[in-house]
Amino acid sequence: MVVHLLVFLLSxxxxxxxxxxxxxxxxxxxxxxxxxFTCSPNTQWTAMVWLLDGTVALTISKLHGVLPSTNTNxxxxxxxxxxxxxxxxxxxxxxxxxxxxxxxxxxxxxxxxSLFVQEKGxxxxxxxxxxxxxxxxxxxECQAVGWYPEPxxxxxxxxRKVSQGxxxxxxxxxxxxLFTVSSNLSVTAAKSSxxxxxxxxxxxxxxxxxxxxxxxxxxxxxxxxxxTVPLAVTAxxxxxxxxxxxxxxxxxxxxxxxxxxPSPQAAIWFDQxxxxxxxxxxVTAGEVNLGYSSEGPTDADYNELIMTTHSQxxxxxxxxxPDVVHCSSLSVHSESQEEENYKNIKRIxxx
Length: 351
Hints:
Layout (H helix, E strand, L loop, with lengths): L1 H18 L1 E3 L2 E5 L4 E6 L6 E6 L2 E7 L3 E2 L7 E5 L7 E5 L8 E7 L3 E10 L3 E4 L4 E4 L3 E11 L4 E6 L2 E2 L5 E7 L5 E10 L4 E8 L7 E10 L10 H33 L3 H14 L2 H4 L15 H14 L22 H15 L2
Parallel strand pairs: 2-10, 12-19
Antiparallel strand pairs: 1-3, 3-8, 4-5, 4-9, 5-6, 7-8, 9-10, 11-13, 13-17, 14-15, 14-18, 16-17, 18-19
């Protein structure tokens, strides 16, 4: 009878234990992040004890709630899923917190989960942006420092993953159990692109990235029969030459017009010189005065007279000397009368 009672009590204990749940069973966080575990008894309990690697970290009383603890880095709060469930919170995880996390229901059962704390370091591609000729081999070096555990290193060229067989990786561990990973990648310059180095651990949602720009000199895009780039270059050069030719023609035409058009002073001088060269007969509307004598006014007098008439722009105001009628037949006058007529004619001409 006693044996049957013990078997019954043991089966009840196993059934109660089967109803207890601790989640998650495994948790990985980065150092400094918060770690949260939920314990769901689903049965009557009196006290819930949380342990970190076998050491009591926090005690929760069903009657009084969270009891004071000497560890200020831990706390607990009621779960929103079930009123009997409690969430154990490790505020800021450290490397020494890595290990076993246990929820112990006094006099009933306990559950244990695993906590892993990882370290996020830095990643850097050495050197600045690089310039290379097409077809030239360019070496890139990347280093990830201060990681735990050993990080996964990956290269990308223009967001395209590079096969692991195309680069080498070396790793070393420091005294603080932190890893440093180095890698070299050789890239053949085909076209301008971004070369990126990525480092990550499982707890990191997005890998850390470092990148540099590779610029290829004399880059030529050859995709099928695409001649867009050569045509664009040719069109640009043609437009530039046409513009230069147009500018030269404009300058030459302007200079030619300037040379062909005399200045106002030159025009006045030319007018005066031409008028000065004209004979008296031309000034007097083409009627020849036979009484003209070389002993008359000088060239200066004529120039002064012509300038006066030119400024007035009215040849009608010029007093013409009366015309002299010359007869072809010689009159039988005395020489004295001819001299007197000649003198009279001379006086009339100089008026």
